[in-house]
Amino acid sequence: MDNSPGVPTSDAFNIISTIRSDALLLRSQDNIRVNVTINSKLARLPVQFYMLSYHRDRMLASAKAFGWDISPLEGPEAFEKLLHMLHDHLQSEHNDRNYAAPLMLRIAFSANGKFTITSTGPHLGPAAIDRFRHPSHVNRLSLLYPRSLFTIADPLLGASYLRWRVFIMFDRVTPNLFTRHKTSHRQQYEKALGLLPALPADSFVNGVQLKTEVLIVNDVNDRWELMEGCRFTPYFQRGNKWITPATKCGGNLGTTRRWALEKGLCEEGVLHGGSVKYNEIIVLSNGARGFQSGIVRKWKSLLTNDTKQ
Fold first, then answer.
1. Measuring CA to CA, which residue among 162, 178, 99 is closest to residue 296?
2. Percentage of the chain surpassing pLDDT 90?
3. What single string gives the DSSP state of each residue in 46-107?
4. How far apart are CA 305 and CA 38, in angstroms?
5. 21 has which bridge partners?
6. Model confidence over 20-32: pLDDT tens digits?
7. Cα distances (Å, whole numbers) of residue 14 to 135, 174, 193, 252
């Protein structure tokens, strides 16, 4: 049974997807392959938008779930229109239809069929830090389309990619349409992120200041099943496999998650909050930043009151 509150109908409510624009992706055969199911000549060409067809597919699935008119998102024409809209945005906001620097583009789709695109950046990542602690962009494509999640989280190699401190919020969330689909209705995520202080205490590793992510758990039972992160899909090493929270746990089904499952880089599974170890290195991914690693920390490393864990 779905316990979702009523679906907002105002233009202020949108299905959203955040996609990376990066000229580096024009060199990626993997980025062409994700579009192969689209019956369009444009889908056979290099494109600078990360996993574009998967973003379209996810927004289409969300529109169906909310009972909206799906025609603006269906078929190869929708893919081509979205591609043109993204290039039009680059032209209007950055004076170049093929703007090369990495950007995060937010695609919003409303119930009346309107698309709105905004962008932030440029963002230099993903990048590694070499052994001399200098930024290295040699492996940037491998962080967008990795061959293995073990490389991302390797304590010797992957530590140079470490970018996130990760905390688990044990204030449980009820799965609903707004957790299963990415929308502008993000109160549960804003609540979790709002618990974090502005300046964490132990946020430097290898000379790099880490950003902070929060994982949420559901209220299906008393074992705190992990759903997702506020910004990322998480992956946990269990034995010789990587496990990402199962669909039935109620979290968002991200584009990079789909790709990682299709390529056999991970499996779905039920992960309990209590099974996660402090200082465990995990992998995080999303459609704007690719794949990066994070380290699980205790809440007491953030809060002066150690009872707030």
1. 162
2. 68
3. --SBTTHHHHHHHHHHHHHHTT---GGGSHHHHHHHHHHHHHHHHHHHHS-TT--S-EEEEE
4. 53
5. 49, 103
6. 999 999 999 999 9
7. 37, 21, 21, 15
